[in-house]
Structure formats: C-alpha cells, structure tokens
Design goal:
Length: 259
C-alpha cells in the first residue's frame, strides 16, 4: 500500500533509539524526509546515517532537549516545513508518589505533557494552512491502565491525552489528525533497564523477570519496535485521514478490557 507520504517532512522526537527510532525509520521507508531529535548526539547521528543509507530520504539530526524553548525552536526550524509531528519522551522515574517532590512532578509534566503541547502549538497552524497534518503522540499503556509505580507517567501523560482529545476535534476539518499511540511492553533499552531494576529488587535474574512479564502478555512475547513504527506510519498516512482523537493501544493483548 502506498501511504501517500512521499516528499512529506516529519519531525520525530526521541528518535535516536527505541520506539522513536522505529517511527522515524518506518516513515522514511514511505519516502518521508526527516528531522530527528534527541539529546544524545552520537547515538542520534548514528541513527541518522542508518536511516539515510537504507531509505535515501533527507535526514537532519538535531541534538536538542525539547523540554526547553531553545531546543524546540531548533528542531522546528531545522525542517523546511513539518507535515508530520511525532512527539516522544522517555518515561519519568518509577516510585512511590509520597517520595516525589513538586520538582519531580514539574519535570515529568515538562517532558511528557507540556513539551508535546508546545511542539503542537508551534506546528499545527501551518498544517491547517496547507490542508494536511498528522500529529502522533507516543504515550504509554499506563494511560489506559495506570501502573501503581508509574504515578508521574500516569498523571503527566493522561494530561496530554485529555488535551489531545479536545484539539483533535477542532482541527479535523482541515485534514489534520491527532492521535496517541500507547505502547505496552516492547523490547527496548527502557524495558530492559526496568526489568533489571525489578529483578534486582526481587533478587532474581533479569531473564526470569522477563519471562514473568511475558507470561502476562497473551501474544507470548514482547513487541518489536518496528511493529510500533509501522502503526505510526499508517496513522500518518493519507488513508488514515478519518482517524483522529484516538488512543491506539499496542500491547499484545495485555489489557484485559473490552473498551
């Protein structure tokens, strides 16, 4: 299927590795030129080179912290235009909410709620003027089924979800869509790090902790990042113009509810 994206420009945040990288690579396969952003320059440049070599599209790497005004300005200005925006940020620390300070909450909100909203504010009007725009926020399955130790993530990402739901209905008539992708357990560095922490706390090997988690997933495995990236590419496609304001949970069936 031709997704109708050749020649478009996308800004993908957190694209040096993991799910952000997978989204960038999948869009590049469809002929989308990229601005990829992350804070770690070496990893980001390596990702830029890999994507460009395989896809042949233009890939601009900008090492920046998009929780800052300067970082957001630099990534937005790096592209001639932004037809597609994929927001993404690493999850905040896990723990008991009693141990988190107001500063901890403000950092979580800045990263997982306010920075995406600001990036949307900076790009959505131009999308409306051109009559095409696709915005995808990478959030978390915890938005659908909150996790007790992820209180910072539960709160900040749910705030972004509520904001996105309202804006999506305002801009839909302009062929601008806004959706959220909610990843479950994907085989990423973040998952392996969290598994190692849980295993250490439980006094077991990381491999045993991984197997314990897999047993809770009906698919019987962790997700592969490129599966996630392909879902992102479809939500950005011409064919997905009638899908907006949605929260797409990709978790191998782990969430047990009907809705």
């Amino acid at each position: 299927m031709d997704l109708g994206l050749k020649g478009k420009w996308a800004l993908v945040c957190g694209a040096s590795k993991g799910l952000g990288y997978a989204c960038a690579a999948s869009l590049a396969q469809e002929g989308v030129n990229l601005v990829i952003a992350a804070r770690t320059r070496q990893a980001l440049n390596e990702s830029r080179d890999r994507i460009a070599a395989v896809s042949g599209v233009e890939v601009i790497a900008v090492d920046a912290d998009v929780t800052t005004d300067d970082g957001r300005q630099r990534v937005v200005q790096a592209a001639p235009r932004i037809d597609i925006l994929v927001t993404n940020a690493g999850g905040p620390p896990v723990g008991d909410f009693r141990k988190f300070s107001q500063d901890d909450w403000m950092r979580a909100l800045a990263s997982n709620m306010l920075a995406p909203i600001e990036l949307i504010r900076m790009t959505v009007d131009a999308m409306i003027d051109r009559g095409f725009g696709r915005i995808v926020n990478i959030t978390s399955s915890a938005v659908k089924a909150p996790v007790d130790v992820l209180c910072l993530s539960n709160g900040s990402r749910s705030g972004l979800t509520g904001f996105a739901a309202g804006l999506a209905r305002q801009v839909a008539r302009h062929n601008v869509t806004l959706n959220n992708l909610l990843p479950g357990k994907f085989d990423t560095d973040r998952l392996r790090s969290n598994n190692a922490q849980r295993a250490h706390a439980a006094g077991i090997a990381p491999e045993l902790e991984a197997q314990r988690m897999i047993q809770t997933i009906p698919a019987g495995r962790f997700g592969m990042p490129m599966e996630f990236g392909q879902a992102c590419a479809f939500l950005c496609s011409a064919q997905a113009a009638y899908i907006t304001g949605q929260n797409l949970l990709i978790d191998g069936g782990a969430y047990p509810g009907t809705f």
